[in-house]
Every structure is written in structure tokens, then in C-alpha cells.
Amino acid sequence: MNETILVVDDDPEIVGAIAITLEREGYRILRAYNGMEALDHALDPAVRLILIDVMMPKLDGLSALIRIREKRNLPIIVLSAKSEDTDKILGLSMGADDYITKPYNPQELAARVRSQLRRYTSLGDIHAEGRGRIIVNGRLAYDPDSLELRADGDVVKLTPTETRIVDLLIRNPGRVFPAEEIYRRVWNEEAFSCENTVMVHIRRIREKIELNPKEPDYIKVVWGIGYKMEQHG
Amino acid sequence: MDTKWNSTGKDPGGEQAYLAAAQGGADRVEEAEVFRPYTGRKGQIRAVLAFLAFFLGVCLVLGSLGAALGRWACQRDAGNLLAEDWQETAAFRREISDYLREFLELGAGEDLGWYSQWYETSEGTAIATDWDRTVTATAPAEETPLPAVSWDDPDVEYRDDSNVLYRITGNGYSYTFSNSGSQLIRSTLPEGYNFLLVFQDSKVSIWKDGEELDVYGDGVYDGDSDWFVPGYDNFPAGDNVSSVKVYIAVRETPVQYYNTSWGVQTSRMYRAYRSFQESREFWLTKAALLGAGVLCLALWFCLRRERQAADKKIAFWTVHVWTEVRFLTVAVPLCALLLLPMASMFDTLWYRQVRLYGLFSMEVLDYMGWSLAACLENTGALLCLWWAVWLIRNDHRYNPRESRKSLLRKLGRVLAGAIRVLRARDLKRPIQKRLSRQTILRPLALLLIILLATIWTTSFYYDGRFVLLAIIAELALFTLLHILWGRRDCALAHDIGLLADQVEAIRSGDLSTPLDLPADADLRQTAEALNDIQAGLNRALEERTRSERMKVELISNVSHDLKTPLTSVLSYAELLRQEPLEGAAADYARIIDEKAHRLAAMVQDVFEVSKAAAGQLPVHPERLDFAKLLRQTLADLDDPIRQSGLIFRVDLPETPVEIVADGKRLYRVFQNLIDNALQYALPGSRIYLTLKTGEGTATASLRNTSRDELPEGVDFTARFVRGDESRTDGGSGLGLSIAKSFTEACGGAFHVETVADLFTAVVAFPLTDK
After folding, report:
1. Residue B45 and residue B40: Cα distance in Å, rounded?
2. Which residues, in sequence order, are bridge partners of residue B724?
3. B570 and chain A in contact, CB less than 8 A
4. Domains plus CATH for chain B?
5. What ipTM describes this predicted complex?
6. Residue A103 and residue B636: Cβ atoms within 8 Å?
7. Per residue in B297-330, pLDDT tens?
8. What is the rounded radius of gyration, in angstroms, for the C-alpha atoms of chain A?
9. Are A108 and A30 part of one and the same domain?
């Protein structure tokens, strides 16, 4: 592995903590403590991923992000204490590949870093392999013929019921399915008090495919209506 | 004159040139002097002279012209102005013609009806037609020489008139009338007589001053013929006068004579002569006056520059005259000159002319024209009218419009001021007194009108016109009063409406537009009070909003500042837990990790509840199924529910319960409520979750029995309130607060009821219309 990751935060302790976590995962870490330093290090071709804080002296994270994006195409994860939806949308629209709010869960952080690197390195493979048959949605890639779901390139082991649910949702990204409809189409039975059954399965699928099952990125509940697969770029 | 004044007075360029000239050299000043009216005593005298000339000229010209036109309209005798010889006037010839007719009648002994009977012929020429009537003369039988004077003689009334001598021989000298001792022959006319008419053999011959006149002209009588005597081809003398001879001699200058036997008698000829003389004098006088007037006007024209000064002076005096007086000075002469004569003439015009010829006939127009001209004879009124108009025009020319004074306007202004003062005083009284006084005064006013009308009607009951007048006046007054009151009532109603609208607007949150009622409106004070309340509310609201915003900013900053060290704490606590620790140290690390996580959760909760409380929480309302949301929430929390060992009794309708809310936020509400129940419910007890619909509302309630005794009088939805104040573990104390503020942010209602140990949380949303 030994891929190099640039970690930028004005708080040295946070940089240190992240460095320890990621070094244990086997990555090499470059440290920067403001936006200007981040720009200097970002030009190092060894850097494969950047973790950057938003609120920093000299140059804030989002401005640095834009400047880096002009020069390099590599995964950038924004790390911020701002937890509002609008902040997340702003960060992602500026060109961030992911957005992690502080305080973060170190495992989740490591998982997201891994996911981004895997996608970044194996993206070409998926496309070469896929040729339109494969349904790609962010980290997920689904082959409708072999009924195989991959997350970050790794095959996800699903039960037949879970596979049918994933098949239904991933073929219709963005569409909201009421629990009754999911039940009827997956189980082929008339739906009655199916909410719990469907929810149990969905929770299990989440645990298998989501980086943080408590705050899912892909299979989401639309409260009072149903469930849907979020479309990712 | 006028143009010159205007060019110097009104043209600023001219004035500047004049000023420059005045400042320049003396020679330039003399140039400018040309355009200036004379000043000093000499100038004043000349000004007075100019005005007097103008005054006299106008008076003389207008007076003489008016009088002349008036006389001409009535008498048309202006020809006398040029006629020097009386015997050549139409009046004289008319007189002679009359005498001849009368003498012929004497000679014939009967009425000559044909003499003056006239008919229109198709040719338009007036001719006598009845001339061939057979007349039998009944003459006296015996021959009488010069008859003695007798009162019974047919010619007695002509006898004493020495102005006209006559000799009438009827029926071939069978009788003779005469007042002349001598034969009336051309050559031997008495002294002082120069005119002789002889009617013989049905023909008339006339000698004047010894020369014979051409009586018949071309022998055909028409309207232009001088002499109206028989003997024309179309107006021959009748058979009954064929043998009558008449001689008439007339004195050159008729004289007045007296008949002492029965008082004063004036000769007809003398009267006609006097009338001629008088007419001639009139026309000569008027001509002389007109000439004098023209001379005066010529003088005035020469002195026109000075007249300017005089006019200005007069305008300076007349500016103080009230408009009403001006109006009267025009109206009174106008009435005297035109309206009164016209009114008196109306009967004649209507009954005689219009009835006879029709309204728009030439005759009527002609008559009216002549009548109007005749009115001009009233020269006094004419002059008054002229000068009144002139003074007003003069005043308007030199005095600005603003300087005009009007008694009525002055009175109106005083009245309006008085009304304003009264109204202002009235407005100080309370509105209920003002309105209740109206309800008393109005019926009183109506009663008064009815009473007056009744008195009037009973006093004049005998005349229908008066009764009708009373009824009309009564109705008119009623209508007027009702219009006035109606307008006031309408204005009041309108203002009340505005006031009500304003109250409603304030209630619904419009604090920016004040209610502006007219200053004299009954509800003005109330409106102002309301505006003050509104302004106060607005101020309070602005202050609150500002402080809320500051609070939210503070919280946002604080939560960010808290999160940064918290991130380090959490990260290192996690790392610490991964280190191989001995004994108690591992426990400590675990506790630090747990508490750090709770702290992080609390910071997030504080942040959200503060934003919600400040109304800054973003919500995305959508139509959703309330029942399904509750089922999803239960399914989502299935694990903790199972682990809690509590029993859930869920009663949700199978049919969709559609409401509009933000699903994510509403999920948080029930997540918090269920968490709350799981945390504080008595172990092993039942928790009831129900959703009921009715009256347009969907009401979800969650009931649980508290593990601990619930304190009385505590608002559980307030921030950082918990059932047991002493508790140190468990929630942040914000769960219910978040639930309440999120519910309200989504447009629902949230409240908590406690009965003994029974804790009930109620969430209600309005149902959407299908």
C-alpha cells in the first residue's frame, strides 16, 4: 500500500490523531497546518488523497480545495465542525469527494479514506469491465446478470432476499418505494404489517454496504413515505 | 399704447435694457425717457386730463349713439337731420294727403272707404282696388253762399286753423265749404302761404312757391311715390268725387293759434311742424354731441401715454372693491338696460308676434332687434354698464388675481375656520359621546323640519302651490340631510372597517404599515393609539429578533468552538482505548470515551434546539403518511425497544393519514419521544402509541408510566429539564425540547400532560385536504 495522504488541519492534535489512525492502516502521512501549506504539499505527486479542514488560518479549506482541483485530480475529503446540510452541500459542490463532520468516528474516517482510495484506483477497472451492463452508483457497482454487488470493488455477500431488495432499489435510484411495494415485489406476497420486516432487511444491507450504517449514504428512509436508493456521482 | 406698455413692463429683456440705460449715461436715459409716462405735477395733470377726455369722449359718444339708435328704432326719422324745408318731408306730405282725403269726403258728402283700402297683389305693389265703387253723393239741395259759422257744419273743426286754408266745392258748386275769404288762386295766395293744392277733374295739381310740382311722376302709384293722392292710373279718383273741387293753401311757417271760445286748440299742421322741428333739433344735438365725443377721444388718443398712469391709479383704488360689488355694478345696469324692458316686452312679443308669425319668423327677430335697439335709449344705464365693465377690466389688467377680494370668500374662510375649530373641539370629546349625540340630534332635526313644513302647509292650506312648495322643500331638505349624514356615516363605517382590518393585520403579523386616517375622522385618536401599539410591538419584535439572532450566532460559534477540542478528546480517547492498558486505566479510558460521546451528542442537541427556538431551523415540508412514519420509526428503533423489555401497544390506522411536515424532523420528534419513554418508563410497563384522526387533525400520543414520581408544575418541554433533577446519567435534557420545537417548526402542535405517574406526549398536525 504505502499510499501517501495529506492531512490538513490547524489543530496539530487532530492532525496527530488522524495520522496515528491512518498510519496504523498502513498509509504514509504528510501534515499541513493551514491552506497555504496544503497547496505546497498537494503538488507532491506521491500524495494520493487529501483530508482537509474548512476553517483554517491564511487560506480556508474550501478555497484551497478549489485551487488544488485546478492542478490535480485526486480524492479530497473535507473535514469540518459545521454539520448543517447546507455546509455539506456547499463542500461537495466545491469539488469535495466526501464530507466528514467533527467530531468524527476514527473507524468511519479510516473506512471513508479507504473507500475513496479504492474507488480512485479501481475506477478504471470497473468501467472497463462494466460496459453498460453494470449499474454503478458511487461506491457501489451492481451486475444485474450475476446479481453481484460490489462496494469499493469488494463483493458484498447478500442473502437472496437482500439481493432482491438491492436489485429493486439500485435499478431505480432516487425512486421512493413504500414498504408495502418492496414487500410485494420481493416476497411476492400481499403486504401486511411489513414495515418491521422490510426495515430489518434494510438495516442488514446497510451494515454490509454503508460506511456508517447509522448515517447511511445509499439506502435512505424517506420518513412517512418509504425507502430509496440515493443516486451518487 | 397697450403693446408699448406690455413690451416695457412685461418683457424682462426690455426692463433690463431700461435699467442698464438708467445706470449708463444721461443721453441713454433720455432715450429711455421716451417710453416712460410723464411724472411730476405736469404728468399728473396730463393724466387727469387724459382720463377726463376719455371719460367725456366715451360718455358723449356712447350717450349720443345710444339715444340715436333708440330713437331710430322707434321713429326712424333720422332723415330730418338733413331736411331743411319742412314742406319736403314725408310727414308734411302725409299730412297734406290726409287733409285732401278728409276734404274730398266733405265734398262728396260721404266716407271714401276706397281711399285707404289696400291689398297685396302678386306683383307686390300696393294699389287701391276699391276705387270703382258706385258712390251716390247726397249733397244738400239748396245753394249756400259763404256759409255762416255754425257748430253743425261738417267742416267746423277745420275753420279756425289758419295754417290750412281751404275751399271745397261739392257736386258742381251746389255747396261750398271754406275758411278763406278769398279765392285760393295760385297768383293771389295770401301773405305767408306758399303751398297750394288743387283737386279738380279728378286730378291733383300742386304749386309750391309759385312753381308746379310733378305730382304723379310716371302715373303709377307704388310704395316709393311721394304723394298719396287719387289720380294715378292704378289709383284713380272715384266717380263720387269727379265733380268735387278742393283748394288747399298751407302757411309756410305754421303758427300756434288759440280758439278762445272753447279753450286752447293746437293746429294739426302746427303739431306736425313742431314735431319736425323737435326731431331735427334732436338729431342735430346728438350729431353735435357725437362730434364733441369724437374730439374728446382724439384728445385722449394723443394723451394715451398719460392715460396709462391714470388707469393704474384707478386700478390702485378699485382693487379694494369686493367682487360681489363689482358683480352688482354690472348686474344692476344690465337689468335696467335689457332685462326689465325685455321682461315688459315679453307679453307683446309672445302674444302678438310669436302667436301671429311663429317663433323663428323674420318678424319676430325684427321686432326683437328693434326692441333691443330701443333699449339703448336708456343712456344712463348704458353708460353705467360700460363704466362698470371698463373698471373691472382695468382692474383685472393691472392687479394680480390674488389681490382680488371677495366678501363671500372671506365669509367662507371665516366659516370654514369656525367649523374647523368646532370640529377640533368636538374631536376632544370621547367618541361614544359624539356618536350618541348624533342619534339624538338627527331625529330632532327631522322633527323640526316636519314641524315647520306642517305649520307652513296649514297656514297656506288654501293654495295648492304653497302646499306643493312645502312638500318639495321638505323632501329636498330630507334628501340633503340624508346625503350629508349618509356620507358621514359611510366615512365612519369605512374608518371602522379600516380599523378592524388593521387590527386583523397586526394580529397576523403586519407591523410595518400604520393606519393613516384623515385628521378630522372620528376614529383618528383610536387609529393613532393603535399605531402606537403597532410601533411598540414592532420595536419589541425587532429587539427580540435581533437578540435571537445574536443568540443563534453565539450558539453556533460556541458549538463550533466546542466541537474542535471535542474532536481531539474523542480521537485520543479512542486511541487510548486501543492501547493495552492495565486494570483501572482501561476503565477510565472507557468512561472518558463514553462521556466524550455524550458531550458530543449534547453539543449537537443544544445547537439544534437553539436554532429551532430561534426559528432558524431549515424545514422541507412535504406530504407524507403520518401512520407510516410512526411505523417506520418503530421499525427503526426496533432494537432498543426489544432490549428495553418494555411492551409497546401500538394503535395506528391502516389507511394513510396525510399531513404536511418535514419527515426527517418529525422522525427526530418521535425518536426522541420513544427514547424518552424507553429511558424513563417503569420497567416492564406498557407504552401506548396511538394515532387518531378527527376534526381535520391527526393526533399522535405516546403514553408511558414513569419510573419515578413526576414532579408537579414542571414544563417538561423546557430546555435542560428532566423528570428527576438529581439524575446525572441519561439524556441531555433536551429530548422533549427538541421534539416540541421540531414539531412546531413543521407546523404541528406539541404538548405534554402528566396525570400522577402517567406521562403523555401529544403531537398534532392538521390533515391535508384530499
Report:
1. 9
2. none
3. yes
4. 1-33 (no CATH), 97-273 (no CATH), 409-503 (no CATH), 534-616 (1.10.287), 619-766 (3.30.565.10)
5. 0.83
6. no
7. 998 888 877 778 888 888 888 888 888 888 888 8
8. 19
9. yes
